[in-house]
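Researcher: Next entry in the queue.
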Amino acid sequence: VVVAVGSRTVFNITLKESAAEIEQVVVTALGIKRQEKALSYNVQQVKSSAITDVKDANFINSLSGKVAGITINTSSSGVGGASKVVMRGNKSITQSSNALYVIDGIPMYNVSNGGDTEFGSRGATEAIADLNPEDIESMSVLTGASAAALYGSSAANGAIMITTKKGQAGTFSASYSNHTDFLKPFVMPKFQNRYGTGSYGKSSGSPIYSWGEKLTDAARTGYTPDDFFETGYVTTNSVTLSGGTEKNQMFFSAASVNSEGIVPNNLYDRYNFTFRNTSHFLKDRLRVDVGANYVVQKDQNMTNQGVYSNPLVSAYLFPRGDSFEAAKIFERWDPARKIAVQYWPQGEGGDLRMQNPYWIAYRNPRNTDKKRYMANVSIAFDILPWLNVSGRAKIDNTNSIFTQKLYASSNTTITEGSTQGHYTEIRNTDEQIYADVMVNINKTFADNKFSLVANVGASVNDTKSKELSYRGPIREVGIPNMFTVFDLDKEKSRAQKYGWQEQTQSIFASVEMGYKSMLYLTVTGRNDWASQLAGSPQRSFFYPSVGLSWLPTATFDMPEAFTYLKLRASFSSVGIPFPRFLTTPTYPYDETNQQWLPTTFRPIEQLYPERTKTWEVGIDARLWNDLRLAASWYRADTNNQTFQPTVSASSGYSSMYVQTGNVRNTGVEASLGYGH
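Model: Structure for this entry, 676 residues:
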């Protein structure tokens, strides 16, 4: 704006904010901050309030319904249970389709303690559930492979970028928050009350089916599983401290999650401690950021799908004509054995091996004690105003102990025939070491007509897991309910040891060229050397991405309704290594016969990494300053799927590995919002 001075000495000028010129910055792959207008793919921002206003012990569940293109399925494990997060559909048939979690630019190995299936009922938590939501500053959700192409093998499934809080300079602040939720079953099945125990209209035939003779009015107990469920609760307490000077900032937080589930004797407790310090040296040219986290978690009776040790099976199938009040006194004193034994006159229910649901809850307990510590350091040095070098390193170690106690008089099918009880102890150790180094360029040319943002670097990611377990029935001449490894039947007890290590070494580069802040071209490339590929004809794999972003509102004079308009298109090809151990003959151990078995699959000749190719086009707009619209069309094809079909026994093998098939996901995403 040009104003003539003339003879005037006073000028009243009002600056009008232009939303189109606000340079919004988002965190993308490898923690690289980029202008939103330059992105050629869909990135959705999530504020920390979205996960702290209504808290969940696993904060990932709080994202449900807040991000387009993402599906979150919570497990049946209860409070703190693992969640399956799938973006734009399942891509791999045999491998995981879960999203990648990235904390402050560092990918996290989302280890889970594992969950049982049909004949077990052990629930599962996961590493991401250990994070304290009060430590989160913001999140960026990268739903497409192009958005996360720099991250390697997990990038095809999208990524959730989490930025944690730092200390604030110039002020000291302290905060305390408390949040309590109460839990009740949301929807219950309807039960009939006309027929009693039995089948085909007779009182015999089945101890669990309720299709026997018609019940009289007096015999209708009106039982529903609500009589078994309790009112659960989740209480979260958090304290944060933040402050510092211009040269040094500190952040500290402590939080606790204490809960009881709706299933009796289901508990989950977690305690988080976080420390972070950021320092500036050499006239702010050198920045050092260090952090540490310590997590203590204890859970009891996290229940997954399964029948034998799942109290919900017998609670749901309790006979309609029997009194549930009698079952609530789940154990009775046995004078002959001088111990309390299970009371369950309804019987095991055929193949389901049912027990009293309260007996399962209190006398078949499963406990996990987990301790996890993380430490990270990040260093950045400005060589020139437009050139800097940075490096990061992180260790993430977890130690856990799982125990299962089956008290005397539990169903002998699950105690391996023992009337004295059964004991299982599993020790897990999971370790991750990650390090990377990057050279970063951010420069403009030709009177700011052209811009260049480039990042070139290398990384190494090493993960390992070890498990040692010992289980078995308590010997018949031993002391009942003596849950130690010393009192187990030496003939039937079993020891098992399992472990693996994977390492991926990578080089990567990203180049973004801009013209007049209205047209941006982005090209990325990464090459991975994954240990899973050792011994295969392809020892590494390269994958590129290219994207174009154009802002018509910065090119033409658009109608006032269009405050901001961006058109974008991208393509990416991402590789995923096949599962470990396929290129090296393995010899399974038969714990029953205590001997090594020969390999059972045919030697592999040609195996290649699984690959996902993704195309995406989209539009982002702001109308009348405050109305935000985003829409995308995408298509993702995943091929080189790895299968293990059975083969003829005459070949000398039971199965072989082949690669075939293609999984295609295509769809449209749209989101609408209001406000800045």
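Model: The chain has a mean pLDDT of 87.
Researcher: Noted, moving on.
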